[in-house]
Amino acid sequence: MLNGFARNGLVIEARRLFDRMPERNLVSWNAMLAGYVQNLEIEEGFRLFEEMSERNAVSWTTMINGFVRVGKLERARELLDAMPCKDVAAQTALMSGYVRIMNMDEAHRIFDVIKSRDVVCWNAMIAGYAQCGRMEEAMRLFREMPKKDMVSWNTLISGFAQGGQMEKAIGIFKEMSERNTVSWNSLISGFAQNGFHMDSLRHFILMRREAKKPDWSTFACVLSACTNVAAFRVGEQLHSLATKRGFINDLFVANALITMYSKCGRISKARQVFNDLRQWRMSEILETLKALSIQMRDIDIKSSFSSHG
């Protein structure tokens, strides 16, 4: 129940339950600490952290993550320096904080002292360099990486594509022994963003031949390509396929359809997509409000029981 309260943002209720516990073990302390951090009550979390008579790697990493999330990197560094047995999760958390503010030199200094780097650590650095447009450094790390996963490959493809280096993006794509939907989307959107709209459509066809299932992002990209080359008939077929796949009510797909139909002079079609989306969104909002009402009623009942327990 402690975790449940914290996950729903009910930190006060979680703390009341925590305070009434006759015995608290390390799991209980860490759950309460995580509740504060998840709800960005970092200073309250730190006060609890200081009260802990026993801490493990989870305790330290949770608190370091908390300071990183609110941008207090110096506080996070002080904690990491004080951590008795530094582990890769805590070091990666601080490193990712510097990556987030694009201080890649500092991030790399932390990366260099991590003894047992896991794939998450490597990917964070590669993604950081890619986001900063420093693709040579990203590529060098990628080649040094002992074991790559799908995220590693897709990050490079996306980085090269966003930088307009489509030939390099294709080169990485072709090296892959296996590709997923994200791999194809990175290439398809890269072509569309860089003005190679026919290439975007062609790779969508190749994706379908490889029996990879397109998602909302795929449809939004290829519909945008259709708009720019005035491929109205192709766009209509994509509209039908998106409907069959269940993506027609996705906001990005609907916007792409409305834009395509409008630019192709099919205003009635664009209006129909808009009206269908508005009707679906209204019913979705009503269902969400209904579910939220039931959830809040359940939480009130639980709170009532716990306050009288």
TrEMBL record:
<dbReference type="InterPro" id="IPR046960">
    <property type="entry name" value="PPR_At4g14850-like_plant"/>
</dbReference>
<dbReference type="GO" id="GO:0003723">
    <property type="term" value="F:RNA binding"/>
</dbReference>
<keyword id="KW-0677">Repeat</keyword>
<feature type="repeat" description="PPR">
    <location>
        <begin position="180"/>
        <end position="214"/>
    </location>
</feature>
<feature type="repeat" description="PPR">
    <location>
        <begin position="25"/>
        <end position="55"/>
    </location>
</feature>
<feature type="repeat" description="PPR">
    <location>
        <begin position="118"/>
        <end position="152"/>
    </location>
</feature>
<feature type="repeat" description="PPR">
    <location>
        <begin position="56"/>
        <end position="90"/>
    </location>
</feature>
<feature type="repeat" description="PPR">
    <location>
        <begin position="250"/>
        <end position="284"/>
    </location>
</feature>
<dbReference type="GO" id="GO:0009451">
    <property type="term" value="P:RNA modification"/>
</dbReference>
<dbReference type="InterPro" id="IPR011990">
    <property type="entry name" value="TPR-like_helical_dom_sf"/>
</dbReference>
<dbReference type="Pfam" id="PF01535">
    <property type="entry name" value="PPR"/>
</dbReference>
<protein>
    <submittedName>
        <fullName>Pentatricopeptide repeat-containing protein</fullName>
    </submittedName>
</protein>
<dbReference type="InterPro" id="IPR002885">
    <property type="entry name" value="PPR_rpt"/>
</dbReference>
